[in-house]
Amino acid sequence: MKFTKKIFLLIMFLFLGLVSSKETYSKEKKSKPNYNYVVEKASIYSDMNKKENIGTLIKGTRVNVYETKEVTKKIKNKQGKEIDATIIMKKITYKDVDKTKVAWIEDTYLVSTLNEAVDERFKNLDFTEKEKKEYKDNKRVKVRGIYVSAHSVALKGRLDELIELAKKNNINAFVIDVKGDYGELTFPMSESINKYTKSANKNPIIKEIEPVIKKLKDNGIYTIARIVSFKDTIYAKENPDKIIVYKDGGKAFTNSDGLVWVSAYDKNLWEYNVTVAKEAAKAGFNEIQFDYVRFPASNGGKLDKVLNYRNPDNMTKAETIQKYLNYAKKELSPYNVYISADIYGQVGSSSDDMSLGQFWEAVSSEVDYVSPMMYPSHYGKGVYGLEIPDANPYKTIYHSTKDSINRNNNISSPAIIRPWIQAFTATWVKGHIHYGAKEVKEQIKAMKDLGVDEYILWSATNKYENFF
């Protein structure tokens, strides 16, 4: 009797264990997403028989496939004869901002990886999941920031005024120039910099950075070091063999501002920028923000055939920018600082890199924060169906933010979206409106309506008093 009972208990134990194992496997199988990616703009339907078209998905959209059905339909062949044709339909879910939606799509529009879905020049980009850290002694904050030039920091009393302004208006972060628009270094740095430049550090605007950082932190201000990456007049003058030139004649290429650009392929400049970033980290900055992390505007890439970018490794623009940010991230990891990148506002709404090297998913996957410059004045006539985007701050920011969020939905380790918004009046835009507190609030509301609660105000003059 005892022996039989033991056998019975053993059998029950094994049975329950098997059931439990099957249930665990079933749950794991059910919870593991089966991602596919849309290879071109495709229609989606409410049912597998395609009776109701409920919209379209753009190229590169990530979907989760959880049901496959074969549908037989009568179609006419070239001879006009009616024949049976089998179409494979897939039931999917996809994310639209933060909502999960259900639809059916033809199997022919889906591929198994994002690399297969993107255009040829983006197939070498790395879309794999990346580790995004939080540092124990440098906690993440939800940034509500303003740009502060090195001159404002150095000007007696102005920094104190901006701190008081921040306290009264719920601002908790300052973006401060560390390597400026011409390549100037704004505070004294160690001799390690001399390996890369002879003159950039000769006359820094901020004479001592440590007291500045201390004052800001004592007042609850999160500090972000702005480093202009590839627009660098000083470095260009010292390294003329590194600048972008015309193939025919070797004349330096310039944009409308007349400034030359150093090639983003120059790995010595990569090292220089990251060395500056390390100096900023050692000085106490919480975050490194890379600006002008791109190639210069080249008329949508039309000038590429006549320009010499000095590209020894034959890399695409987008691949180069991603590798630069990846290199910076790895080098700066021991310093416990976060990494952010400024990109064009329309990159999130573009199917390519706008010939700048800024492909949304490639940038977002590398950095902790991505800051699209969503100034309404910078969007052309008719963008998002708006006659004058500058005169529609809410709608412009809403559309741009929505597209950016949906691009983030395509990858597993996206950056936090923290847009730059407009705190200036764009008098050069035909049909522009005056920007003040109302227009800033509209931009912030557009983001918040979509769940984005971080932002930075840009004013080149740092005159923010009328925007709160």
TrEMBL record:
InterPro entries: DUF4015 (IPR025275), GH (IPR017853). Residues 145-464 form the DUF4015 domain. Coiled coil: none annotated. It comes from the Bacteria. Pfam families: DUF4015 (PF13200). This is DUF4015 domain-containing protein. It comes from Fusobacterium pseudoperiodonticum. The lineage of its organism: Bacteria, Fusobacteriati, Fusobacteriota, Fusobacteriia, Fusobacteriales.
